[in-house]
Design a protein that fits this description.
- Helices cover 57% and strands 16% of the residues.
- By secondary structure, the protein is α+β, with helices and mostly antiparallel strands.
- The protein has 4 domains: 204 residues, no CATH class; 180 residues, no CATH class; 219 residues, no CATH class; 153 residues, Barwin-like endoglucanases, CATH 2.40.40.20.
- It has a 6-stranded mixed barrel.
- Helix 13 runs antiparallel to helix 24.
- It is a multi-pass membrane protein.
- It is found in: Cell membrane.
- It comes from Amycolatopsis pigmentata.
- InterPro entries: ABC3_permease_C, MacB_PCD, Macrolide_Exporter_MacB.
Length: 843
């Protein structure tokens, strides 16, 4: 039996090879994803491990905000401490070549080289307050070099000259995915920090001193600190690194799973056709003594060998896929193009890749293998092109299963949509609804054989009218075996459904966000600051108001003040901004009373936090003094009515905090009739000399949102596209096997007068009908599922309307049909080239 199985594989190698492509692509995606995850994990762990290099004890504040220089000196005096340095980071305003301040992340440099978390790539580390080192991302982004002069923006908005003395790396990767970094001496960095101390301290122990013992000594000698041994610090850091890479791997594995599901359907259909074609062969085996279990094992052996073969090729292809995926992940970060590609091949990756390929293939072949055991020996005496078992079993049980799955899916979707407005997080409602759509999709897949006939009658109207007899034959062939046609088109339907759902959901979200941008911006331009701790100059609003192209200017100032005994974020607005820029939903009181100096308004939850009510006198203080302000209104916020926790007018802020001068945000509206180019020129001219000024416009924000969504969609289409490619291989495979199965039929049609061209046309139309069926069903289902998903993430404050990108969806259907036609070219050519006499001789 083993020899018979191997001989059968050899004789059918070409057919099995085409089928293997589906598994090869699926395994390549899975392998590439796993290797990419390991590579990112390894890179992140090595990068994060720099933080713990040489550290025997890590000290963090416990009960205080920071580790002050005095506390650091205490740590250094503890017996057994060889070296101790503070670590902190803050956002620094770097002045770029255009004279604008751009925030970068600044790190303090450890004095002892054993405790430094950076690797020097070029030059040296800074030793003086006017020296700085940069990472490769900052070097590339700002076009800087060692020895070059640059500037940071000082506290008083004056340029502070710095000299670049080195280039460093935080790990083995030549770039970072998270922005640009610079390193300064501790004194230079603390001059920019919001707090005078360090966020933590790292300690190197004397030779022979135990980490646990040293940690206990430091904890006893320095109060209000929390100590951690170097080993504990390393373990905690590596756990954090692992979580970051795991999220990327899980995201990619979702699409890999989709590809494998589609590949499994293709393999299932292939083995089903092969078993149908081998009816007489299997019956003869039964006649000469083969048992049913031997036939079953024979078919599964073919599946195992096919899975191993495809997995080996897919594993090799997965290495290249990993390189592409790593480049894709790296491309989302600034300056990330130079990141090294890693291909860490672990035993677990090898085992998982081969296991996935073999298991998916074998599971897909189980049902066809079981059917092979049902072939009776008597079948060797007859030849039926299509047995009733393959054609007719679309009865009561299938309908009952479809109804059951539809009810379950609809119920889950209802639960998800109803839960979206409750206390459940939106992500939970989204997940529940997404699960419901997958159950509904399963119902449609099971109902496939029931839908093939009616759908082909509708879709085949135009081809039958245009092409005549070949189209009628093609339509009849497509519905002759509804289970086979349904299994072939289901694979394509899944891919198109997911593409459509993602596209429709993203497009709808984009339309909603852009409309909200228009509502949120009661102006044409919003001028903000590129650094949170710097304000726009007082003179800028007056300069804008003096311009003949500008109709109105509204200013807001955001700061932090002490309200009662606690601190809170406070926003001061112009009196003109009330009910324009400041439009919350009032709960109690009257927002218009804010125009009276000495008044204040609060978010309802903020008022509850401070335990105050309407009319109360609330002490509000700053470094300049304290004022009693009257609470005149409370409000709620939502997506349509954003507002700060505490609001007051600029006049009131001037009394409470006279030292706060300047504005956080300036809203500018152009006069009617002024072109966007002219108004933009005015705003740019007045803001160009201000390093921290950053101009946003409604049009620019809409463009940015559209660009981000389009980039995301491009990546999603590329990932889901693999499943569509696998499905198209399935159509090609089905037609190829169908041509072999219908050799005598094709020869008979030729004998009755059908030309070679008409025979080719018949097969091409058959492929087009299958492609159109899968694509149209996918678009309809994807649009419906997008509606359900959008309903699950909608709320009374933010309703997501479905916006179908009709043009893109039409292109998707056309591409699917054209691809199906291309996949049918070789089978059609083969059928047309088979001589009539040879075809009639086939048995």
């Amino acid at each position: 039996m083993v020899k018979t199985t191997l001989a059968g594989i050899k004789s059918r190698f070409g057919r099995l090879l085409l089928s293997s492509i589906a598994i090869i692509i699926g395994v390549a995606f899975v392998t590439g994803t796993l290797i990419t995850g390991n590579g990112l994990d390894q890179s992140m762990r090595e990068n994060f491990a720099r933080q713990t290099r040489g550290v025997d004890v890590q000290v963090s504040a416990d009960g205080v905000d920071e580790i002050t220089p005095a506390v650091l000196d205490q740590i250094r005096k503890v017996p057994g401490v060889a070296a101790a340095d503070g670590r902190t980071q803050t956002r620094l305003p770097l002045i770029n070549s255009k004279g604008k301040a751009v925030e970068v992340t600044g790190y303090s440099l450890e004095g002892d080289s054993r405790l430094r978390e950076f690797d020097l790539l070029q030059g040296r580390f800074p030793a003086k307050a006017d020296e700085i080192a940069i990472d490769p991302s900052a070097k590339t982004t700002f076009n800087l070099a060692v020895g070059q002069k640059m500037s940071l923006l000082g506290k008083n908005n004056e340029p502070v000259p710095m000299t670049i003395v080195g280039v460093f790396s935080q790990g083995t990767s030549s770039a970072t995915l998270y922005g640009q970094y610079v390193v300064l001496t501790p004194d230079a960095l603390l001059a920019y920090a919001t707090q005078p101390g360090f966020s933590s301290a790292v300690v190197a122990a004397d030779t022979g001193v135990n980490q646990d013992e040293l940690a206990k000594r430091i904890a006893a000698a320095v109060p209000h600190t929390k100590t951690m041994t170097g080993a504990e610090y390393t373990n905690e850091t590596l756990i954090s690194a692992g979580k970051g890479s795991a999220s990327v791997t899980q995201f990619l594995l979702v699409f890999a799973l989709i590809s494998l599901v589609v590949a499994g359907m293709v393999i299932y259909n292939t083995f089903t056709i092969l078993i149908a074609q081998r009816t007489r062969e299997l019956a003869l085996l039964r006649c000469v003594g083969a048992h049913r279990d031997q036939v079953f094992r024979s078919v599964l052996t073919e599946a195992v060998l096919m899975g191993l073969f495809a997995s080996a090729i897919g594993f090799a292809a997965g290495i290249g896929t990993s390189a592409l995926l790593q480049r894709l992940v790296a491309s989302v970060g600034p300056g990330a193009g130079g990141s090294a590609v890693r291909v860490p091949i672990t035993p677990s990756v090898v085992v998982a890749s081969f296991a996935v390929g073999v298991v998916v293939t074998v599971l897909s072949a189980v049902v066809p293998a079981w059917r092979a055991t049902r072939v009776a020996p008597l079948a060797a005496l007859r030849s039926l092109p299509d047995g009733k078992n393959e054609v007719g079993r679309t009865g009561f049980l299938r309908i009952a299963l479809v109804v059951l799955l539809a009810l379950i899916g609809a119920g889950i979707c209802v639960i998800g949509i109803r839960g979206s407005g409750s206390n459940n997080p939106d992500s939970l409602a989204f997940i529940v609804t997404g699960l419901g759509t997958m159950v509904l999709l399963s119902a449609v897949i099971v109902a496939g054989p029931l839908l093939v006939g009616p759908a082909n009658q509708v879709l085949g109207v135009m081809p039958r009218w245009v092409f005549g007899v070949p189209a009628k034959l093609a339509s009849a062939n497509a519905v002759r075996n509804p289970k086979r046609t349904a299994a072939t088109t289901a694979a394509l339907m899944i891919g198109v459904t997911i593409v459509t759902m993602i596209t429709a959901t993203a497009t709808s979200a984009k339309e909603t966000v852009t409309s909200k941008i228009q509502e949120r911006y009661p102006a044409d331009y919003a001028i903000g600051t590129s650094t949170d701790d710097r304000l726009l100059p007082v003179a800028l609003p007056q300069q804008l108001r003096a311009s003949p192209q500008i109709e109105s200017v509204i200013t807001t100032t955001r700061t932090r003040l002490t309200v009662g005994s606690d601190s809170a974020d406070v926003t001061a607005v112009d009196t003109d901004a009330i009910n324009t820029a400041l439009t919350p939903s009032t709960v109690n009181g009257d927002l218009n009373q804010l125009t009276t100096t000495g008044t204040i308004a609060m978010l309802r939850s903020t008022a509850q936090h401070f335990n105050v009510k309407l009319g109360d006198q609330i002490p509000v203080s700053s470094d300049s003094g304290k004022q009693l302000l009257t609470l005149v209104a409370t409000y709620d916020i939502d997506d349509q009515h954003p507002a700060p926790p505490v609001a007051m007018t600029g006049d009131t802020l001037a009394k409470v905090a006279p030292a706060v001068t300047g504005y956080s945000r300036i809203l500018v509206k152009a006069k009617p009739g002024v072109s966007p180019q002219d108004s933009q020129a005015v705003v740019d001219k007045l803001t160009d000399p201000i390093p921290v000024a950053k101009v946003d416009s409604v049009a620019a924000n809409k463009t940015e949102v559209s660009s981000q969504v389009d980039s995301m969609l491009g990546m999603m289409w590329a990932l889901v596209g693999l499943a569509v490619v696998i499905a198209l291989f399935g159509i090609a495979n089905t037609l190829s096997l169908s041509v072999l199965e219908r050799t005598r039929e094709s020869a008979l049609l030729r004998a009755l007068g059908l030309t070679r061209g008409q025979l080719r046309l018949m097969l091409l139309i058959e492929a087009a009908l299958m492609g159109m069926l899968g694509a149209v069903l996918g678009v309809v289902l994807g649009g419906g599922f997008a509606y359900l998903v959008l309903q699950s993430i909608s709320s009374k404050d933010l309703h997501m309307n479905v916006s179908l990108p009709v043009g893109q969806l039409v292109v998707l259907v056309v591409v699917a049909v054209v691809a199906a036609l291309i996949s049918a070219l070789l089978p059609a050519r083969r059928a047309a080239r088979t001589p009539m006499v040879a075809g009639m001789a086939e048995t």
